[in-house]
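#structure-requests
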Amino acid sequence: MRYRRLGRSGLQLSALSFGAWLTAGTRLGRGESRELVALAWDHGVNFFDNAENYAHGEAERVMGDVIADLRLPRDGFCVSSKVRFGSAADPRPTQSGLSRKHVRDACHDALRRLRVDYLDLFFCHRPDPDTPVAETVWAMDALIRQGKVLYWGTSEWPAALIREAIQVARTHHLHAPTMEQPQYNLLHRDRVELEYAPLYAEHGLGITVWSPLASGLLTGKYNEGVPEGSRFAHLGEASPLHDREHGEAKLERARRFAALAAELGVAPAQLAIAWCLLNPHVSTVLLGASSTVQLRENLGALELVDRLDEPAWRRLEAVTR
């Protein structure tokens, strides 16, 4: 495993990390989740990502139980949560959003579910138009000063709002956001490469990227349709292929990508993940897996980063544009 600093902070995260979105607490129980976390840990993964709304809090309960059962040393791993949507199926007004109250309550609930004394990373899971950015910054700063959170950040926030949060923090000598968690893959890259570009040098922003496989589109398994039991089948109308305007174009680019991976003699999933790692601003790439076979293959992406030469990477860029 390789390790990278989280932006300009001193925290070192594994280049590949493991997340619980759409798996733990829904498709996978404690037994299967335990195998996946153990495999990730044995391969050097030290960051495990979660959120309050994943399986309405059950994903955090499962992950917390698994980590405790495996007796992972607390000083050896990092765990995250996200706040915005609440853990209830139908949250009341104070059970969601980024108000001071819900940020505090969500942190305490995540600590209880994950069975830890502090969160290493705590993300604001999408903006909240009903809460002033300054209120959220003050709430996050309070949690850090109380020792309940080490680093806070955002997920899928526009650059303008991140800048506003940083400015509030600097003006009042508060802890500013350290990281952002955006989607990043060969089919979805403008926000990371263009919109956030000034934030890396100016503010030392780190990014922990999700969906490196475009929800599985870059694995090639959707080239001929949506298999039963697949992630797209689980997502339903939220699947990228339901986007009438761009869905077919994305699928065609994914097919060209899969053809090139076959020509290069590499697994398409590994190639897609390795491409994300080429970006020096990426602190870690979040992996999601429903089987140890799948996770083991995806962890092999690290080996491809140095194995493929520059002409191969240029061809990859060309076929996916």
